[in-house]
Design brief:
Elements lengths: L11 H14 L19 H7 L11 H9 L1 H7 L3 H11 L4 E4 L11 E7 L14 H14 L5 E10 L2 E7 L46
Parallel strand pairs: 2-3
Antiparallel strand pairs: 1-2, 3-4
């Protein structure tokens, strides 16, 4: 142990503290590794993610997913509030999700609004799955709301493709909505559709007669 710099008249307490500190300093440990998502111990990753201001953390993620999310935290914060940030969120959920800004839609939407379009039938013609689940819709809305510009308002639109035509299945703007009967959705699906259709604003979805949509299951 290296000699300390205590004066000859140091008290017993001061000498004890100096000895304890010297022992801690003798422990070989790379503090830099704690700030590296690739080398940080798995049980400390949540604290590293918090220190890097990550927006979302899921304890059920695998270690690889946690490290990847932590590693991208700074870059995500740099681009937060941009279209790029929203598109990155959509890619993590589903390759078929499409972002359409108000000026790209036909007819155009209200200024500073945008749609996230989700087909309920994939490219292979398979319907259902997690795309029709309430939890999946909620997760998309929550994550996009964190990444989008504050002034922009989101609508999540689900659609079905029938005989070559794409039909809107639902715009997720209602706080209470029930499933429409359709043969293209798996008959055995037990998804809780009652609370599926909602946006960050919780606005109700009206039909052509200005009545709130509430189709019987």
């Amino acid at each position: 142990m290296a000699p300390d710099l205590l004066p000859p008249n140091a008290t017993a307490l001061e000498r004890s503290v100096s000895t304890a500190i010297a022992r801690d300093g003798a422990i070989a440990f790379d503090l830099g590794a704690l700030w590296n998502p690739a080398t940080c111990p798995a049980d400390l990753l949540p604290w590293l993610a918090w220190g890097l201001s990550i927006d979302r953390w899921d304890p059920t993620w695998t270690d690889d997913e946690k490290r990847a999310a932590t590693a991208s935290a700074i870059e995500d914060q740099r681009h937060k509030g941009t279209r790029w940030a929203v598109e990155q969120v959509l890619q993590r959920f589903d390759d078929l999700l499409q972002l359409v800004e108000w000026f790209e839609a036909s007819p155009q939407l209200d200024p500073y609004t945008f749609e996230v379009r989700l087909p309920l039938v994939d490219a292979d013609g398979v319907a259902g799955g997690r795309r029709v689940s309430a939890d999946f819709a909620r997760a998309i809305i929550a994550e996009v709301s964190r990444a989008k510009p504050v002034r922009a308002h989101l609508t999540l639109v689900q659609s079905l493709e029938l005989e070559g035509a794409i039909l809107p299945f639902a715009a997720l703007q209602a706080t209470h909505y029930r499933r429409l009967d359709t043969s293209t959705v798996n008959a055995g699906d037990t998804t809780p559709w009652d609370d599926l259709l909602q946006t960050e604003t919780g606005e109700p979805l009206f039909d052509d007669f200005e009545a709130i949509e509430d189709t019987p299951a």
